[in-house]
């Protein structure tokens, strides 16, 4: 099964998405859910308006979508659910710096991006290990 990679980024007034590995797929929305829905609509429209011979190869067979979200967009969206203090404990990056990333006052270097990603992944693994 092919993997369609979609990158989601936040601008000043909406979320936007584009495919890293498939030309012609662009989407926008007011939330992560809206931009994801619009992405599937963009794929549907692309398939509807082009003959199958002109579809990107990845869309001709079964594919799964891998969503990638940049650090500022992640922090802004999930700050509704997790405080910056909590994210600081998860990632080891102080809240002021996380706030700067979230509000686009600075851009995280690759090392900081890795620290944030690794901390969030550790937290997600802990959540997955909960048994009820």
Mean pLDDT: 93
Q: β content, as a range?
A: 15-25%
What is the count of helical runs?
6
Question: How do the strands line up in the largest sheet?
Answer: 3-2-1-4
Helix amount = 40-55%
- Label the overall shape: elongated
Query: Total number of β-strand segments?
Result: 4
Q: What are the segments in which pLDDT stays under 50 over at least 5 consecutive residues? A: none
Oligomer: single chain
Give the helix/strand layout.
Layout: E1 2-10, E2 15-19, E3 26-29, H1 32-49, H2 57-60, E4 63-69, H3 71-78, H4 84-91, H5 95-102, H6 110-128
Parallel strand pairs: 1-4
Antiparallel strand pairs: 1-2, 2-3
Helix pairs in contact: 3-5, 4-5
Q: How would you sum up this structure in a few lines?
A:
The protein is α+β, with helices and mostly antiparallel strands. It is 49% helix and 19% strand. It has helices at 32-49, 57-60, 71-78, 84-91, 95-102, 110-128; strands spanning 2-10, 15-19, 26-29, 63-69.
Task: Describe what you observe in this structure.
The protein folds into two domains: 2-69, TTHA1013/TTHA0281-like (2-Layer Sandwich); 71-128, Orthogonal Bundle (434 Repressor (Amino-terminal Domain)). The protein has helices at 32-49, 57-60, 71-78, 84-91, 95-102, 110-128, and strands at residues 2-10, 15-19, 26-29, 63-69. With 132 residues, it is an alpha+beta fold. The chain has six helices and four strands; from the N terminus they run βββααβαααα. A hairpin with a 6-residue loop joins β2 (15-19) and β3 (26-29). It has a four-stranded mixed β-sheet.
Supply database-style keywords.
132 residues; alpha+beta; TTHA1013/TTHA0281-like; 2 domains; four-stranded mixed beta sheet; 6 helices; 4 strands; 49% helix
